[in-house]
Amino acid sequence: MFENVIDQPSVAVLTADLRAGRLPPSVLFSGPAYSGKLTAALELARVLSCEAGSGGWSCTCPSCLRHKELASPDTLILGARSCVQEIRAAAASLLSADPPSPALRYLFLRAVRKLTLRFHPVFADSPERAAKPASVLASLNEYLEELSPAYPAPDSDRLAKLTEAAVDASVRLEENFLYSSVPVGFVRSVSSWLRIKPAGKVKVLIVENTETMQDAARNAFLKILEEPPESVQFVLTTVQKSAVMPTILSRVRNYSFSARSAASQEEVIRRIFRAAPAPGQTIAGFLNQFLPVKPDSIAICARRFLFSVLCAAGRGKRLSAMQAMGGVLSAYEPAAREKISPPEIAAALNKGKPLPVWRLFLSSVAGEIRLAMRQPALSPEETEVFRRWMQALKTAFTGTTVFNLSPAASLERLDAEFRAAIQG
């Protein structure tokens, strides 16, 4: 069991607890991004549901076969997460293979269903909410049915057509319908589903990025944890354990996932995606290749944003104190020393979609500020400006990931806050 979770010591502890019958009904997988938390959660669901009892990846019991395709009616995923990068990476791996192996077909199916499971009709708290993505979901299900390893592989032309159509539909689904914070109505709706007897041995609800839940959703979920239904396993994940509601933490057992080493990340790229990683390439770096905006272009947008902020504040009383930032700007390539407006940045960033594009932009801006903060002899005025800028970046990220603000709206606010900080 857990054979496809590469180099994660916490899995050994989890396996021991499973075999000893010590697994509690509610667990938390905490650790950095790309440490295998969701993979382990999905594997736990499969192992708990295995009809043969062995839980090995090669098990061919009906339950394990459904779980391999993420097609079990007893497992759902709740929580915001961008899946498009992984879907595109899996598609590239599938289409580059000749012939396409069952392992790569599973990889693609699972990547897409990590997204579609967040739109299960169970979550819909109104007929209108269920109807909006229905046509896209129906098309995706048709494509995935034909790509299933349970059937002979389509010929190369048909495979390419199905895969490309599934990728396009996945992009539409994520960009147009994926929430950035769990609606409280979803939590209330899933509460009723959890109390219905499972089709198999157990129902599993995976709640990703638990720390991003707003108060109403967290409180509604806490009520479920306080009186958990029978035959239900809760698996929560977080990248920031300290941000999870203390009363939720008190009701779960934590399994700490560690950051993978550079060698382990390269192994994930080789074994899972059947790709040859560049020396020192991280999983994040590999997946970022499949963003609609290239990381280098995002970095230039970040530099142009800072350049434009300083130019616009040219008559500000604090501008003379911004020598450190000016020193960093002077080293920019010519393309980065051109003014750009917030709407132009939003357009260049594909409106900040998928979310990793927006996250990379904010991270790039923060990186440039940190470079300036390392300049010698910072003045108190500069230190205060940089402090306010870093706080504004945190607010912009929280606004999109917790309060469902669009990146475009957050960018307008960020621009105003940066300029105000310079003006004093």
Describe the structure.
This is DNA polymerase III. InterPro entries: DNA_Rep/Repair_Clamp_Loader, P-loop_NTPase. It comes from Candidatus Avitreponema avistercoris. The protein is mainly alpha-helical and 424 residues long. It folds into two domains: 279 residues, Rossmann fold; 129 residues, no CATH class. Strands 2-3-4-1-5 form a five-stranded parallel beta sheet, covered by helices on one side. The longest helix is centred in the middle third of the chain and has 22 residues. The radius of gyration is 23 Å and the shape is globular.
The structural domain count equals: 2
Mean pLDDT: 91
C-alpha-based Rg, rounded? 23 Å
Q: What is CATH's topology name of the largest domain?
A: Rossmann fold
Summarize the SSE layout with pairings.
Elements: H1 10-19, E1 26-30, H2 37-49, H3 62-68, E2 75-78, H4 84-96, H5 102-116, H6 127-131, H7 134-147, H8 156-177, H9 184-194, E3 203-207, H10 215-226, E4 232-238, H11 246-249, E5 253-256, H12 262-273, H13 283-288, H14 295-312, H15 323-330, H16 342-348, H17 355-373, H18 380-401, H19 407-423
Parallel strand pairs: 1-4, 1-5, 2-3, 3-4
